[in-house]
Design a protein that fits this description.
Layout lengths: L3 H21 L3 H26 L3 H31 L13
Helix pairs in contact: 1-2, 2-3
C-alpha cells in the first residue's frame, strides 16, 4: 500500500508546477490550466487525508472544489474569449483593459 507521504509529495509537485506556470507563462489559457492544476493538487491532498483518517468530509469537500473549478474554467474562458474578440490575442502583457 502506498503511504500518505507519496500522495502529499505528488500534490506538492503538482502545486509547484502550477505556481511556476502561473508566474512564468503569458498566455491566459495556459494560466487558467495552471490554476486548474493547482486546484487538482489540493484535491489530491484532501483525498489523501480523507482516506488516512477514514472520514468522508474530505471527499465531500473535493466535490465542492471540483464544482468551483468547473465554474472558474467556464467564466475564465468566457472572459478570455471576449478579450480575444477585441484584441485578437491571449497574451496578458498586451491586454490593456483599463486604458481609455
Amino acid at each position: 500500500m502506498i503511504g500518505i507521504d507519496w500522495y502529499l509529495a505528488l500534490s506538492a509537485i503538482l502545486f509547484s508546477i502550477g505556481v511556476v506556470g502561473v508566474l512564468i507563462r503569458r498566455n491566459a489559457i495556459v494560466i487558467i490550466m495552471c490554476v486548474e492544476l493547482m486546484l487538482n493538487s489540493v484535491n489530491v491532498t484532501l483525498i489523501a487525508f480523507a482516506s488516512y483518517h477514514g472520514d468522508i468530509a474530505g471527499q465531500v469537500l473535493v466535490l465542492f472544489v471540483l464544482a468551483v473549478a468547473a465554474a472558474e474554467a467556464v467564466v475564465g474562458l468566457a472572459i478570455i474569449l471576449a478579450i480575444f474578440r477585441n484584441n485578437l490575442t491571449t497574451d496578458i502583457t498586451k491586454i490593456n483593459l483599463l486604458r481609455w
